[in-house]
Specification:
The structure holds two protein chains of two kinds. Chain A has a four-stranded antiparallel sheet with strand order 3-4-5-6, with no helix packed on it. Chain A has a two-stranded antiparallel ribbon with strand order 1-2. By secondary structure, chain A is mostly beta strands. The N and C termini of chain A lie far apart (39 Å). In chain A, a hairpin with a 7-residue loop joins strand 4 and strand 5. The radius of gyration of chain A is 14 Å and the shape is globular. Chain A has a domain of 62 residues: Folate-binding fold (2-Layer Sandwich). In chain B, strands 8, 9, 12, 13, 14, 15 and 27 form a seven-stranded mixed sheet that branches. A seven-stranded mixed sheet of chain B has the order 17-23-18-19-20-21-22. Chain B folds into eight domains: 126 residues, Roll (Ubiquitin-like (UB roll)); 30 residues, no CATH class; 187 residues, FAD/NAD(P)-binding domain, CATH 3.50.50.60; 112 residues, FAD/NAD(P)-binding domain; 65 residues, Arc Repressor Mutant, subunit A, CATH 1.10.10.1100; 142 residues, 2-Layer Sandwich (Gyrase A, domain 2); 89 residues, Alpha-Beta Plaits (2-Layer Sandwich); 98 residues, Aminomethyltransferase beta-barrel domains (Elongation Factor Tu (Ef-tu), domain 3), CATH 2.40.30.110. Chain B has 25 helices and 49 strands. Chain B is α+β, with helices and mostly antiparallel strands. The chains are: A mainly beta, B alpha+beta. Chains A and B meet through helix 1 of A and helix 20 of B. The structure holds zinc ion.
C-alpha cells in the first residue's frame, strides 16, 4: 500500500503507523463515563469507505486522516488530521 | 565418461555446443551444454524417469518445459545449499550441478513405497480426514510421522542457509511481465513513447514461445526479429530488462513483488554477491504478457514417463535440440497441437500417429499426414501401456467405438491453453470464461493492470504482437508519455480450433493433479460426498494445493467437477488466486534481516568506550546497553553487579542513561499541554526544576513515566522510558495535532542528540567538581534536589545538569551533546579515579531501583493503574487529562486490586525469582487463590539478601503478612513476607543530602 502524504508526497506503507477510526471525537472535560467509554472502545466495523488515522512516523510525523475502502484498500482522500479528534465546543 | 547425450540432435537449438557441462543426477554422471535446463539435459541423455509421485510413488517423468511443472521436482545441490522441490524444467544447468530425485527409497528405480499403489483404494479423496480421525493422540505420535515419511516431497537442508539474499525497490511507469512476442511488443511501444519500463522474464533467455515456435514477423524469421528488437530495447536508457526474474504478486497501490534468481545458475554465488534478490516494484501501469499454459487431458496412464505436453516437446526439440522420443504420437483436441508434429518431423523424428479428438481436421494436416506416412485417428487416448522406462503402447478409443493401438515411445498431449490468470486475479478478480477457447481469461484485474496476448486468451502470434504493442502504447500514454511509437510488428495468426475434451473415461488411474496425485475418480468421489463447491473440492481432494498451485490441473479439475455435477464450467467457478505465483524462498523475504542484522542496532554514545572496558551487553529493544563491567577474578555476574552497587552506595559510579527517550516541548502552551498528557501538573513547575510524571492511556491504564524538567518558561525537556521512546512521541504528536490543536506547542525528538550519564553516590559532588567549572555552585543550597540548570564545564563546553536520582543516592544526571558522550565517559573515569569511580551497568541500575522500590518495565505492564503502583495521589482532581475518566471505572478502583508491594524471603538465604505466584499461606496453590505474582527481584548487596517487588491483592494493607510464593515453572515453593517496597533509605535523606 502507498500513501500520498500531503507534506512528503507518495510514500510506502512501512513509513506509516495505523491507529484507527477518526470518527470518535474526544469528549469534553467533564463528560460522563459512558461518553468516554464510547469514545475509547466503540467502533463501527465498516465494509467500505472508512476514515482512519495514519501517522507518518517515518517522515514528517504528521497525523493524517485517510479515507480507505476496507474491501479494496483503495484510498480516496488523504488530509492532515489536525483537530480531527478535538472536542467540539459549541460556538 | 559422462553420458553421450544419446537424445541430442546433431545441430540446431539454442544450446552452446562449445560449452559442455558435466552434472550428476542421482549420483550418475551426465553431460549437457550451456543453455540447457536440468530437464533438457536429462532428456538429451535419454532419462525418462525423474521422480516418484506424492502419494502412490508412481514413476514420473518430465511433463512441461516451464515453471508450471508438477512432476520433475528434484533436490538441487548438496549440503547446506540443498534445495528441495526445485523444478528441473527451470533449473539452469551449470558445470558440477548435482541433483537427486525425491520421494523414493532406496532408489528411484526400486522404490519400496510404490506398494502404496496396491493400497490405492484407501488413498482416495478425503483420505487424511477419514483415516486418522481417532484416537487423537495417535496423530502426533504415529500417523503424522508415518505419513510425512511416506507421502512427502524433498528434504530441506536442515542447516542454516549459507547464502545472502537482498531486497530492493524499483520504480517505473510501465511494468511488463514476460518477454514473449506480447511483452516485447509492449516494451517497444512503451519504450519508444519515452516511458520508464521494466520488463521481467523468468527465463534466462528472452523471447518466450518465439524460442520454441519461431514464426515470421514483419516478413523476417522470428529469431531475426527477436535480435533486432532486443538491440533496439537495449539502446533505450529507460528500458530495464530483468531476466531470471518472476513477478509473483501484486499488492495495493501498484506495488509488485518479483524474485530475481541472481546466482541460482551458478554452483554458489560469487563472493560478496547475493543468491536471490526480492524486488518490490512500484509501477503506474502493468502489462501482463505472461502467456498461457498448455493443459493436459485426463486419461488413464496420463502420468506415464514419456507423456508430455505437446508444446514442451516442441520446446525441447526446437530450443534445446533434445528429443524426448524417437517415435512420437500426438493426442490433441485443437489445431495448435499439430505444430508439434511439424517440429518433430522437421527434426527427423518419427510420428507414430495423431489421435485427434475433433470430428474434422484441416486438409493441410491431412496432407501432412499422408506425406509423413502416419495415420490420423479420430478418437481419444484411453490408456497407456508403459512404466518407469517410458511409454510402450497407446490404447485409442476411436470415434464410433472401435479400438486401436499405437506403438510409440512418447506421447505429446494438447488439451488447449489456459491463459496465466494468476497476477490478474490476485486482488480477488475472478477470471471470466470464454467459450471459443474453452478457457478462463483475466477479468477484474487490479487497477492499472491489463493482460495482453496469450495471457488474455488471444493465442495467435499476430494478435500477441498487436495487443502487446497497443497495451504498451496505452500504458505509456496513461503515464504521460507521448513519443512516437511507430507501427506494431505484424504477423499472421495461427488457427486454433478447439473441441473441448477434459477427461477420457477408461480403466486405471487418470491424473488431474500430478503433484498431489489427485485423480479424476477422486473428484467424482468428492462430488458424491457433497464437496461440490470448488473451495471444498480443493481442500477435500488437495487439488491445486501443491507447490505448483495447480497450474496444469485446476481447470481440468473444475471441468470434471462441472461434468459430474451437471453444471457448466463457469457455474462451477474458480477458487481464489493468491500470491506468490511461484514458490519464493523465505530467505528472500528476510533478505539481510537475519542473525546479527535481524534488526537495526542502536549504540549508546559511550558504547565503544564500554567495549574497551570489557562490558557485557544486553539487548534492550534495538539498543545494546552495558549490563555490567566484569573485572578480573570475578566469578560471575552477581559478583560484578554486587561490587558495582556497593561502589555507588559507598563512593561514586556512573552509568550511560542516554537510551531514555527525550523530547523537547516548546511553546507558550507547553505547560498546559503537559497537564493534559500527564496525570500530575506541570504548568506549575518552576523554571529550573524537574518533576516525575506519569502518563495514562485513554483507557486509564498507566502508559509511561519519566522526569520532565522546565528549562525555560516555554521550554520543557521530557524523558520517557527506553522501551516507549518512539511510541510516546507518536502519542504526544497525536494529542498535539489531533486532540488539542488549539494549544500552541511544538514537539521535537532529541533522543539521539543528547548523551546522558547518571552520576551517583556520596562522592558525586567530588567527582563533578573535577568536571564542572569551579564557578558553578553544586551545594545543596545552590543546586537543590530536583534542580535543573545549564552549567559550564571545565574547558568551556556547556552541559545540562539534573539533580535527579534513580538509585536513591546523592546523584546528578549530566547531559552533553551526543558527540561528546564518548569523551564524557572517558573524562568521568579519569576525573573520578581519585574517588574510585566505578562504571555500572543496567543490572546494578536495576538492583538499586528495586532497593528503592521504583517501578520499571515489569510493573508498567499495561495492566496496572497509577494507584496499583502506589502513585494514586499524583492523579490531579483539578484538571482533565488523558485517561482520567476511564481510570475511575469501578474495576480500576476496586479495593482488591493487585498493587505493588515489597517481598523478602522468610529464609534470608533463599533466592527469589520473578514470575512466582503469590498464594495465601497454608493454602494449596490454584487459580482460585492466586493473589498476584512477583514482578522484579534482585540480590540486594545493601541488605545482603534477595528482595523483590510483587503485585499482590490488597498488598499495601497486608504489610508484615507471610504469604506463599509458588513457582510451578521452576518447581519452587517458599514463604515471603510482604513489606514496604522502599527497602533502602525510605525517608529519602541520602538523595537529598
Ligand atoms: Zn509526511
Amino acid at each position: 500500500m502507498r500513501i500520498v502524504c500531503p507534506f512528503c508526497g507518495e510514500r510506502e506503507l512501512g513509513e506509516f503507523t495505523y491507529l484507527g477510526d477518526t470518527k470518535p471525537v474526544r469528549p469534553e472535560a467533564g463528560a460522563s463515563e459512558d461518553e468516554v467509554f464510547d469514545y475509547v472502545y466503540l467502533r463501527d466495523n465498516v465494509a467500505g469507505d472508512t476514515s482512519e488515522y495514519w501517522y507518518h512516523g517515518g517522515g514528517c510525523r504528521a497525523w493524517l486522516k485517510v479515507t480507505r475502502n476496507t474491501l479494496t484498500h483503495e484510498i480516496s482522500s488523504i488530509e492532515p488530521a489536525a483537530g480531527a479528534g478535538a472536542a467540539k465546543v459549541d460556538a | 565418461m559422462a553420458g553421450a547425450q544419446t537424445h541430442r540432435l546433431g545441430n540446431g537449438g539454442l544450446v552452446d555446443r562449445s560449452a559442455p557441462l558435466n552434472f550428476r543426477f542421482d549420483g550418475k554422471a551426465f553431460s549437457g551444454f550451456q543453455g540447457d535446463t536440468l530437464a533438457s539435459a536429462l532428456i538429451a541423455n535419454g532419462v525418462k524417469l525423474v521422480g516418484r509421485s506424492f502419494k502412490y510413488h508412481r514413476p514420473r517423468g518430465i511433463l512441461t518445459s516451464g515453471s508450471e511443472e508438477p512432476n520433475a521436482l528434484v533436490e538441487l545441490r548438496t549440503g547446506a545449499r540443498r534445495e528441495p522441490n526445485t523444478k528441473a524444467t527451470t533449473a539452469e544447468l551449470y558445470d558440477g550441478l548435482e541433483a537427486a530425485s525425491q520421494n523414493r527409497w532406496p532408489s528411484l528405480r526400486h522404490d519400496v513405497m510404490s506398494v502404496n499403489q496396491l493400497f490405492a483404494p484407501i488413498f482416495v479423496a478425503g483420505f487424511y480426514y477419514k483415516t486418522f480421525m481417532w484416537p487423537a493422540k495417535f496423530w502426533e505420535a504415529i500417523y503424522e510421522p508415518a505419513i510425512r515419511r511416506a507421502a512427502g516431497l524433498g528434504r530441506a537442508a536442515g542447516v542454516a542457509d549459507p547464502d545472502h539474499y537482498d531486497k530492493a525497490w524499483a520504480h517505473c511507469d510501465v511494468l511488463i511481465a514476460g518477454s514473449g512476442p506480447t511483452g516485447l511488443a509492449a516494451a517497444l511501444a512503451a519504450g519508444r513513447s519515452g516511458a520508464r519500463v521494466i520488463l521481467c522474464e523468468e527465463d534466462f533467455t528472452l523471447g518466450g514461445r518465439l524460442l520454441s515456435d519461431g514464426g515470421t514477423i514483419d516478413g523476417v524469421p522470428a529469431a531475426e526479429w527477436l535480435s533486432r528488437t532486443l538491440a533496439e530495447l537495449a539502446d533505450m536508457p529507460d528500458v530495464r530488462i530483468m531476466t531470471r526474474t518472476t513477478l509473483f504478486g501484486v499488492y495495493d497501490g501498484g506495488t509488485y513483488g518479483a524474485i530475481e534468481r541472481v546466482n541460482d545458475h551458478l554452483p554458489s554465488p560469487p563472493q560478496h554477491q547475493v543468491r536471490q534478490r526480492l524486488w518490490r516494484i512500484v509501477a503506474k501501469r502493468c502489462v501482463v504478457a505472461a502467456g498461457a499454459i498448455e493443459r493436459p487431458i485426463v486419461f488413464a496412464g496420463n502420468d506415464t514417463p514419456g507423456v508430455m505436453m505437446a508444446s514442451a516437446i516442441r520446446t525441447y526439440v526446437a530450443r534445446y535440440a533434445a528429443t524426448p522420443a524417437k517415435r512420437l504420437a500426438l493426442f490433441t483436441n485443437n489445431e495448435d497441437g499439430w505444430r508439434t508434429v511439424e517440429t518433430a518431423l522437421g527434426a527427423g523424428l518419427q510420428i507414430a500417429a495423431v489421435i485427434d479428438a475433433r470430428p474434422e481436421i484441416s486438409p493441410a494436416h491431412r496432407s501432412l499426414a499422408s506425406k509423413g506416412g502416419f495415420p490420423v485417428l479420430h478418437g481419444s487416448v484411453s490408456g497407456v501401456d508403459g512404466g518407469k522406462d517410458g511409454v510402450r503402447k497407446i490404447a485409442v478409443s476411436l470415434t464410433g467405438g472401435a479400438r486401436a493401438e499405437v506403438e510409440a515411445d512418447g506421447l505429446a498431449v494438447s488439451g488447449g491453453w489456459n491463459p496465466a490468470v494468476g497476477l490478474t486475479s490476485f486482488h480477488r478478480g475472478r477470471p471470466a470464461w470464454r467459450d471459443d477457447i474453452s478457457a478462463f481469461v483475466p477479468d477484474g484485474a487490479p487497477p492499472g493492470m491489463v493482460a495482453a496476448g496469450a495471457a488474455n486468451g488471444d493465442f495467435g502470434l499476430g494478435a500477441c504482437l498487436s495487443q502487446g504493442f497497443a497495451a504498451g502504447a496505452a500504458a505509456a500514454r496513461d503515464t504521460g508519455h507521448s513519443g512516437i511509437v511507430g507501427t506494431a510488428p505484424a504477423a499472421d495468426d495461427e488457427a486454433f480450433s478447439l473441441t473441448p475434451l477434459w477427461h477420457v473415461a477408461g480403466k486405471g488411474k487418470a491424473f488431474v493433479d500430478y503433484q498431489h496425485d489427485v485423480t479424476a475418480s477422486d473428484i467424482e468421489l468428492a462430488q458424491r460426498e457433497g464437496f461440490e463447491s470448488v473451495e471444498h473440492l480443493k481442500r477435500y481432494t488437495t487439488l491445486g494445493m501443491a507447490t505448483d498451485q495447480g497450474k496444469t490441473s485446476n481447470v481440468a479439475g473444475l471441468a470434471i467437477m462441472a461434468a459430474v455435477s451437471g453444471r457448466s464450467i463457469p457455474e462451477t467457478g474458480t477458487t481464489i488466486y493468491r500470491p506468490p505465483y511461484v514458490p519464493v524462498a523465505i530467505g528472500a523475504f528476510a533478505g539481510h534481516h537475519r542473525d546479527e542484522t535481524f534488526h537495526a542496532t542502536r549504540l549508546t554514545p559511550s558504547h565503544h568506550w564500554a567495549v574497551e572496558q570489557g562490558a557485557v551487553f544486553v539487548d534492550t529493544g534495538l539498543w545494546k546497553r552495558a549490563q555490567w563491567y566484569p573485572r578480573a577474578g570475578e566469578k560471575d555476574w552477581l559478583e560484578s553487579v554486587t561490587r558495582e552497587v556497593k561502589a555507588v552506595r559507598s563512593g561514586v559510579g556512573f552509568c550511560d542513561v542516554s537510551t531514555l527517550g527525550k523530547i523537547d516541548v516548546h511553546g507558550p502552551d507547553a505547560g498546559a499541554f503537559l497537564d493534559r498528557v500527564y496525570i500530575n501538573t506541570f504548568s506549575s513547575l518552576a523554571v529550573g526544576k524537574a518533576r516525575y510524571g506519569l502518563m495514562l492511556r485513554e483507557d486509564g491504564i498507566v502508559y509511561d513515566d519519566g522526569t520532565t524538567s522546565r528549562l525555560a518558561e516555554d521550554h520543557y525537556f521530557l524523558t520517557t522510558t527506553t522501551a516507549k521512546a518512539g511510541l510516546v512521541m507518536q502519542h504526544l504528536e497525536f494529542c498535539r495535532q489531533v486532540l488539542f490543536p488549539e494549544l500552541d506547542v511544538q514537539l521535537t525528538s532529541v533522543s539521539d542528540q543528547w548523551a546522558q550519564f547518571s552520576i551517583a553516590g556520596p562522592k558525586t559532588r567530588d567527582l563533578l567538581r573535577e568536571i564542572v567549572d569551579p564557578s558553578e555552585d553544586l551545594s545543596n543550597e545552590g543546586f537543590p534536589f530536583m534542580g535543573v540548570r545549564e552549567v559550564a564545564l571545565r574547558g568551556g563546553l556547556r552541559a545540562r545538569l539534573f539533580r535527579i536520582s534513580f538509585s536513591g543516592e546523592m546523584a546528578f544526571e549530566i547531559s552533553v551533546p551526543a558527540r561528546f558522550g564518548d569523551a564524557m565517559a572517558r573524562n568521568l573515569m579519569l576525573a573520578g579515579a581519585p574517588f574510585g569511580v566505578t562504571p555500572y551497568g543496567t543490572e546494578a541500575l536495576g538492583v538499586m531501583r528495586v532497593e528503592k522500590g521504583h517501578i520499571a518495565g515489569p510493573e508498567l505492564s499495561g495492566t496496572t493503574t497509577a494507584a496499583d503502583l502506589g502513585l494514586g495521589k499524583m492523579m490531579s482532581t483539578k484538571k482533565d487529562y488523558i485517561g482520567r475518566v476511564m481510570a475511575g471505572r469501578e474495576a480500576l478502583v476496586a479495593p482488591d486490586r493487585q498493587v505493588v508491594v515489597g517481598i523478602r524471603p522468610t529464609d534470608r538465604t533463599r533466592r527469589l525469582r520473578s514470575g512466582a505466584h503469590i498464594i495465601p499461606k497454608g493454602q494449596t496453590p490454584g487459580p482460585g487463590n492466586d493473589q498476584g505474582y512477583v514482578t522484579s527481584v534482585c540480590f540486594s548487596p545493601t541488605l545482603d539478601q534477595w528482595i523483590g517487588l510483587a503485585l499482590v491483592e490488597r498488598g499495601r494493607e497486608r504489610i508484615g503478612e507471610i504469604v506463599h510464593a509458588h513457582d510451578p515453572l521452576r518447581g519452587e515453593d517458599y514463604d515471603v513476607e510482604l513489606c514496604n517496597p522502599v527497602f533502602y533509605d525510605p525517608d529519602g535523606g541520602r538523595q537529598r543530602g
